[in-house]
Amino acid sequence: MSQPFLHKQQELSRPSLKNKIYPFLFKYGTLIVIVLTVIVFSLLNDQFLSYKNFSDILRSISIITLLAIGVTISLIVGGFDLSVGSTASLATVTSAAALVLYRQETIVALLIPLAVGLCVGLLNAFLAVKVRLPDMLATLAVMYIVNGLHLTFTKGFSIYNNMPLGSGETAPGVFLPSFLFIGQGEVFSVPMPVIIMLVAVIAVHIFLRFSRPGRLLYVTGGNEEAARLSGVPVKRYKMYAYLLSSFFASLAGIVLASRIGTGQVSAGAPLLMDGVAAAFIGFSVFGANKPNVVGTFFGAVLIGVLLNGLTMLNVPYYAQDIVKGSILIGALAFMYYAKRN
Amino acid sequence: MSSLQLRNIRKSFGRQDVLKGVSLTISPGEVHALLGANGAGKSTLMKILSGDYSKDSGTITLNGSEVSVASPRDAIRLGIEMVVQEPDTALVPSLTVAENVTMEDLLSGPSFISWNNRRKKARQHLQLVGLSISTEKLISECSLAEKQLILLARALSKHASFIILDEPTAALSQNETDRLFSVINSLKKQGIGFVFISHRLPEIFKLCDRITVLKDGNDVLSAPTTSTNADEVIQHMIGELLILEKEHVTNKKDAVLLEAHSFHVPKTGQNVSFKLHEGEVVGIAGLVGAGKTETARALFGADLSPDSLSVHGVQKRWRSPKDAVANGLSFVPEERRKEGIITSFSLRDNLAIPSFSKFTSKGFLSSSSIEKAAAEWIQKLGIKAESTSVPAGLLSGGNQQKAAIGKWLLKGGDIFLFDEPTKGIDIGAKEDVFSLIKTLASEGKGILYFTSELNELFTVADRILVLYNGEITAQFTREEATYEKIMHAATGGQHVTAISS
Question: Where does the sequence pass through the membrane (chain A) (predicted)?
């Protein structure tokens, strides 16, 4: 009688060890990777571990993070906003145009891109919710349209201080210092973009975790039919998600315009993929297994730390996409493996 | 007397009249059984009552005054709640138990939520339904029985006064069913009225106060449980009295088709041993969670086992279901719509899929030969469909099941694994499935019949094995088997006896 009992006990003890390590890895794997990366780069380069470098890293990811917050919210409702890059470009040139071409005040240069961005959000919502195109295809089409719009508006040229106009005169306005402060200023030697990013992450986290509309976004995305039958106005919440997504994309575009001090065309396009990657890496942070804004932040941090470290080690920029792709595979493989088990 | 009355409800979809003037009265503190074969209109009626569909005509009155149930929200406001048959359609799998139970707080509570309050509230309502699980558990990690009770707890959290239970016991074990019934009985005493949809007569007579039977969109019987009986109810459901088969003809021969010797089933972690003979129907009884599906999947190579099986006396080890099919095995899975048929494919293609190689010449599929073979089997199986090209997902449950079986008949294997083949199909279709199985046996095929519907075993099985916790704990010939003996083994009663002695 005692023998089978022993046998059973052995069987039990083996998985219990597994049961402890695996959940730990699923929960903290991404953070462990970030810490390991920091340690490795610090050993390889003595300038890596400095306040200056870390504020550089955070500043470099701030715009991506803002954009990625938008992507995250669209993912939460079960959608996917691919138009955020174009929307950011549109915001960049509209704020620059307001300042440089039309001599407007900073406040106008902030409100116009946000308003235009919300229009893009409405268009996305209309196509995905009313016309019921698949989210990815609807926002892909809108991505092209918005990209074309902002290029048509600028005739393909970037907008900068003292730029010559067609009439032979120079542009009447300039980037105002108060506008430039958003992207270039510092408060207690913390760069403004970093402050904006952290405030946005914390505010959106609180919104998603503790507010009714925030939770309803998760309910809608988690099971749309169940949400509908519980009386959740799912269409309205999907619309809110697309509006928020475009709002954060526009905010990213404004910070970008202020940071580089020009209304550079197509500046937002390369941000899209990094934003999407950050949002998906974020799934794996703290074992959330669903889109979440804190995870998205750490996803962006991971990308930022790696790119910064690789640049310091003189790895050419064109090779860095290989690394980004590999991290994304790692994070997703981790998440799906965790889901299956 | 705040009873809920439906009067003369009509509803048609296109040209099809699904409800032809149905009336139903649900009183507080009453469990009202709603019965009917598939297609009788039960689901449609309940969807109208829960605000999912709108009625064409008729009235719904509550407390004597007419009410409008135009949306799910209206139904909730009036205190009408539905606990759906498949809880996954009503719960959010990626969120926690607490969040799902207190979902209503998100619709009418304060703007900012307190997680502590929500957890506390969820715990209270879970207690009412006798469920003690962590409120932080994700729904995706809960068992089906837990999900059902979670849905019931959620209905209570919304202060429902009328609760519709759609086949709540279909996937529950006996213990879980008993627990659910005691919860229903205690809620009934608090004045909650229930509509209880079920196909299982014994439990209806045990639990319900009143029975209404629907047939073809009409209410054909409504009576207190005490003044009717099973025969009368069945008669109204099918329109004619079914005569239960008393005599059993066995076709069992001596040749062994399939033999498992200490065959390891990875998902249950247990080993099973049995023999299946030519022309034999072996019933494998087990309650939910006994490991029926897991065992069937391992035998079919859907979950890989390190052990081999003896098929026609030759040792074989599966590396994929393809190997099993090549050796004459066929598997009719429990999850019909997910695994048995491809809902978006035509009926014709569904029947032909396992045999595509048969219909291929020079690398191309011959649609004319598929059409011919499909039409022939649709007729043989009595599948009711407008044409061979109708998407399989649009067929009724019983016809879908016939398609899921038919595809293997077209293939022509000789060992059949049936996993809960009568789940969610009506009595008429059940009879068809039974007679199909008997025909297969008479042709010398071997059948493993996995089921939790113990009474079905007496209809089809030559021999009965009982599965408990993944192990075969008992074996009975048809003559030896009694309902009590099987139940004893299936609930693990033998284990208790063995330990105490």
Answer: 21-45, 57-77, 108-129, 136-153, 187-208, 240-261, 267-286, 293-311, 317-338
